[in-house]
Design brief:
12 helices, 2 domains, about 325 residues, 8 strands, N-(1-d-carboxylethyl)-l-norvaline Dehydrogenase, domain 2, disordered C terminus, 8-stranded mixed beta sheet, binds NADP nicotinamide-adenine-dinucleotide phosphate, Rossmann fold, single chain, alpha/beta
Length: about 325
């Protein structure tokens, strides 16, 4: 294609040709969303048979990643991991000069911030723009208001393709900043949050289960409490950013007493104490550092540094 491969600047978003490389579960959902929105969509997958559903929905199957890239100014990659992205970039490099020149490659493969920055440098060296994205959704949610996709990279690259990218997450397509590593960092932070909430629920369900209470009986109060705690986040964020932790609600000392009850109850019922022990270890170090009268947010100081080696910790 010639200069107009991105469509004229003011063309309706649906005219933007898109290439999707990697048609696993997520890649198929991405291609499906672009096709439903009317984008000319070219797809490539290492195992060609997986392109069948997208082709039936109107996509063109390319015989190689180079051929797919040549068809679009917006190239979306979604493969298993960073090693697979490296393989793809190696293959594009080997294809001769310039397959990525003037294009924007959007990598929606999960990875780390360092991997995103490495990809960005490689694509820049090949003359292309690079956005690193994280999909905070499962494949069936792609293209619906439930989906969120966040991006890090040069703002102009994001804005150039924002209308097409919005197809994937109509209500939550967010440019986080120019650091290519930001999407991976946010992704990791949200996953950690998710596991903490789920682990708290599972530990509580185990505790109550040992007393004969069904998880279903616990779930409504657990959900309500999760919402209550979510309401505290902004206030604690202000304390963290200010570096001052006034205990307007409860002191860390009061929390530690409750943590002791949780551990005691768990041990008494034959339930794992690993989760309460972890929290008590962190809180114990904060008490040892003289933070007993501060708010729970002061624990950020413990999360900000590596765990001490050799078992030093101050847990009770
Ligand atoms: N599924 C989810 O709920 C979800 C949610 C958020 C983010 N993600 C992320 O999206 C990415 C893809 O996930 P998925 O669920 O689509 O996985 P998947 O169904 O296992 O698909 C993996 C894809 O990667 C391709 N691939 C693997 N190694 C490759 C290589 N060396 N060269 C070229 N292609 C290669 C596979 O090709 P073949 O078909 O030839 O094997 C396939 O298309 C992952 O990074 C995942 O973390 C997934």
């Amino acid at each position: 294609m010639t200069d107009d491969r991105n469509g004229p600047r003011n063309a309706p978003a649906k005219d933007t040709p898109v290439a999707v490389l990697g048609l696993g579960l997520m890649g198929r959902a991405l291609a499906g969303a672009f096709l439903r929105a009317g984008h000319p969509t070219t797809v490539w997958n290492r195992t060609p048979s997986k392109t069948a559903a997208a082709v039936a929905a109107g996509a063109r199957a390319a015989a190689s990643p180079e051929e797919a890239v040549a068809a679009a100014g917006l190239v979306v990659v979604c493969v298993s991991d960073h090693a697979a992205v490296r393989d793809l970039l190696d293959r594009l490099d080997a294809a001769g000069p310039g397959p990525l020149a003037g294009r924007v490659l959007v990598d929606l493969t999960s990875g780390t911030a360092a991997q995103a920055r490495e990809n960005a440098a490689r694509v820049a060296a090949a003359g292309g723009g690079y956005l690193d994205g994280a999909i905070l959704a499962v494949p069936p949610a792609v293209g619906t208001p439930e989906a969120a996709v966040v991006y890090g990279g040069v703002r102009a690259d994001f804005e150039r393709h924002e209308p097409a990218l919005r197809v994937l997450a109509p209500d939550a397509t967010v440019h986080l900043g120019e650091d290519h590593g930001l999407a991976a960092l946010y992704d990791a932070a949200v996953l950690g949050l998710m596991w903490s909430v789920l682990n708290g629920f599972l530990h509580g369900a185990a505790l109550l289960g040992a007393a004969g209470v069904d998880a279903a009986a616990f779930a409504p109060l657990a959900a309500r409490s999760t919402v209550t705690v979510a309401g505290w986040l902004e206030g604690y964020a202000d304390q963290i950013d200010a570096g001052a932790y006034p205990a307007d609600d409860a002191t860390l000392e009061t929390h530690v007493a409750a943590m002791d009850h949780l551990a005691e109850q768990s041990a008494g019922l034959g339930v794992s104490t690993e989760l309460p022990d972890l929290v008590r270890t962190l809180a114990g170090r904060a008490l040892a550092a003289g933070q007993g009268g501060a708010s729970y947010a002061s624990l950020i100081e413990q999360f900000r540094r590596p765990a001490p080696s050799g078992g030093e910790g101050g847990g009770e």
